[in-house]
Structures are given as C-alpha cells and as structure tokens.
Amino acid sequence: MTEQKRSWAEPYKIKMVELLKMTSKEDRQKAIAEAGYNTFLLKSEDVYIDLLTDSGTSAMSDRQWAALMMGDEAYAGSANFYNLEKVVREYYTYKELIPTHQGRGAEHIMSRLLIKEGDYVPGNMYFTTTRLHQELAGGKFVDVIVDEAHDAGSEYPWKGNVCMKKMQKLVDEVGADKIPYISLEGCVNMAGGQPFSMANLRELKAFCDKYKIMIMLDATRCCENSYFIQQNEKGYENKSVKEILHEMCAMTDGCTISAKKDSLVNIGGFFACNDPDLAAKARNMCVMYEGLHTYGGLAGRDMEAMAIGIQESAMDSHQKARIGQVHYLGEKLLKAGIPLVTPFGGHAIFLDAKKFLPHLNQEEFPAQALAAALYVESGVRAMERGNISAGRDPETKKNRNPKLELVRLTIPRRVYTQAHMDVVAESVIALYEKRSQIKGLEFVYEPEHLRFFQATFKPKA
Asked: Is residue 17 a part of any domain in this protein?
C-alpha cells in the first residue's frame, strides 16, 4: 500500500501582521487613471495584494531582524562587511566582494569595467537594467538563449539554457576578442523565471574556456535555479540547494546580485569575482559611485541581515515552500484555462497577454493594459513584461516588439498565504471572462530609459 501524499506547509510561523486595506472599484479606477495606467505609479496604500515585484519585498526572519541590532555602523572596516564576505565565499565561492546599494549598482560597475565601445555581450535573454548598462558602456546585447524560451507554451524544462550554436555563430561573426563575457542569468526573468541546467553550464564553460570568454553570472535568483536543478536534473536529486549553488558558481568568473530577491533583504546587492586585479578596479569604482568598499551604500545592519538571508535562502525547505506557492497559483490558473507561460518558473506566474487579449495588437500594449485592468478589477497589482519593458531599438527608435508579451504576477517571499493566492486566481479568472472589454493604451509620457518605471498612458479611443 503506497503512502498517501501529504500537504506541505510553510517552514515558518507568523509573529507579526500588517493590516491590508481593500478599496472600492471606483477608488481603483480613479487611482489607476491618476497613475497614468502604470501600476508602478500607484501608491502602495491603494493596493490590496501587491505582486508588482519580488525585489526588496520579502519578509525578513526573526534572526534577520535581530541582526539589525548588530549593525556596526563604522564608516570603514565594518565587522558586518567581513561577516558578509565570509558567507559569500562559503555559499557563492567568489573570493572578492564589493557590496553595492542594489543589483543595478553592481551591473553598472561590472559593465563599465569589462565592456569597451564596439563590444558584444551575449546573454540568455535580456534583463532591462542589465542591457541598459551594457549599452551605456558601449556594448551591444546579443540574445543567445534557446529558442524555446521565446515560446510561452513550450514545455521545455530548461528555457534558461544558452544555445551553443548561437554562441558559436556570434564568435564566428565578430571574433572572441570582441566578447568580454557572457551574461548568464539564473531563473531568467523575462522568459518567465526559467532555469538553466547544470549540463548546459558545463558545456558553456568548456566553450568559454576555449575562446577565453568570461562567464559572469546574474546570480540574483540562482538559489531558485539550484532548486530546479535539484528537482529536475539527473544526478542532483540527492544534493542540497547549497551544494548545487556552490558547484554552479565555481564554474563562473564572477557575478552580480540583487540581494533584494533570493537573499531575503529589503535593500542591497554586490559584485563578486575571483580576479584580484578586477576587484581592485571595482573597489575604486565603488568608492566613486556607491560608497567606501566596505559598505557600498549600505548600512552595517543591512549587510548583517544579508549574510543571514543568504544562509536562509539556500535552505531546501525554504525553496520548496517558496516555489511551491508560485506553482500553487499557476496550477489554479492553468486549470481554469488562463493562458500562461509554462512550465512555471521560480518567482512569478506570467500571464500570456497576447492570448489573453487577442483583440489587441502589440503596439496597443496588451500587457500594460491587462495589468491596469487587473488592478481595477481586484486591487491586485502586477506588472508588464513585454513591449514597454523591451523599450526602443537605440538605432531605429522603433519598439522592439518582443515575442513574449507578459504580465508578471510576482510572489514576494514569506509574505502572503495560500488564501491570498486563491484571491489572485479568482480575480484573474473573473477578468478573463470579460477580457473583450479591455482597451489598448497609448503613450502620454515616455522616458528615454527604462520607460516601464515612469511612463504614463491613456486608453485608446
């Protein structure tokens, strides 16, 4: 007789709650109009369930809150920096640590140091801030992700993988000396939180060793990526998330991290590498743009909380519950026939706006319109990951029109219960039933860079 599969529960209990406010539909219609139909411009107090991002929105543990009282706020040589450095070496393997105020500070430093005018930077799909820093440094981003990543309905389990044929083609066309590094992202955000496999990383390392190209990891969600490897890749089923993360990072030359995701803190990030000469240059840039190299724009207490957050993020029980909650929401939506990116990723469920709103063309910004409509319907705040996020081609000035036009329902870590996920699912399903009423949008204001943060819109007539 086989043992019945039992339910899992969150590996924590709740000590404190924050009260939520539910607004009326009329209030939300007014709020979204005042925000220019951009969910980033809504006031937090007007949001019921906030799925805008998992960046800096995690709930810290009692150990992390206690660590705040251990902050050494010395301007130079903070004890918390050395604690963080020790933990980064243990979990991420890199010898040299440069803290930054958040991930994009690390991206800025790395891009300025490694990219020169006319270089090409391959990556497994772009991320908004990453590509912008590469372009501002004089480089050109080249997408080398597998084709399955651009197909929302593909069930391929490793949509974050690098296509080695695309890498070879790039080397043949421009020469390896024009490629300073490949930017490899764990649980690729713009593809739907999709992981790469360890087998693909090993193949990539052999290729990069041959051509003397560095592998720089965007390790922001690599704990989540490690969990997918544990669950789905042969030979890793008996290894811990920590062990897999260690093996992953050991095959790369350095990383940038936004600690506001996996590392369970509300602010912070870092650049790390093994090359002492590169680290020395990075520390010099840190002093210019972030703060002294032993605090990098962070308070000592922030670094101490980060050190503990890194340890907690690599716990198997944490990742099982964190990704389990994301997949719980995905299963409810999929069962109701909602078009989604599959397989489900690590940090969010992504609605396929093209299929959700087939009556809108991509120049009418269906994902932006859908995110705004979901807020009005339910008070749930999501965000667009499509034409607006992709921005304009710097040469043609035309919208890039990516193949994926998505709305991201991003789950903060350790914040919401399964009941909240039920409410979100019911809200999306209710909106799907009247999807034909949703109108497209057009720009009122469009910033030059990272327009999805601050652009405003109005409904098309």
From this structure: no
- Tell me whether residue 381 is one of the annotated catalytic residues: no
| Predicted TM-score of the model (pTM) | 0.95
Catalytic residue, candidates 37, 120, 127, 350:
127
283 is annotated as an active-site residue: no
Hey, is 442 helix, strand or coil?
Answer: strand
Catalytic residue among 75, 211, 443, 445: 75
Q: Does the annotation mark 218 as catalytic?
A: yes
Residues in the chain: 461
pLDDT in tens, 206-262: 999 999 999 999 999 999 999 999 999 999 999 999 999 999 999 999 999 999 999
* 128 catalytic per annotation: yes
Are residues 272 and 144 located together in one domain of the fold? yes
Omega of the bond leading into 343 within 30 degrees of 0 (cis): yes
From 242, 385, 408, 414, the catalytic residue? 385
Give the confidence band of 1 by pLDDT, cuts at 50, 70, 90: very low
Same domain, 280 and 260: yes
Active site residue 356: no
Active site residue 262: no
Q: Which domain holds residue 159?
A: 62-313
Among candidate residues 53, 57, 128, 220, the one labeled active-site is 128
Query: Is there a catalytic annotation at residue 385?
Result: yes
Number of separate domains in the chain: 2
When pLDDT is averaged across residues 184-211 and rounded to a whole number, the result is 98
294, 313, 332 — which closes off a domain?
313
Signed CA dihedral, 218, 224, 228, 233: sign only? positive
The residues near 152 (Cβ < 8 Å, ≥ 6 apart) are 192, 339, 340, 341, 342, 350, 352, 354, 355, 404, 406
Dist CA 8 CA 11 (whole Å) = 9
Q: What is the CATH number of the domain that holds 186?
A: 3.40.640.10
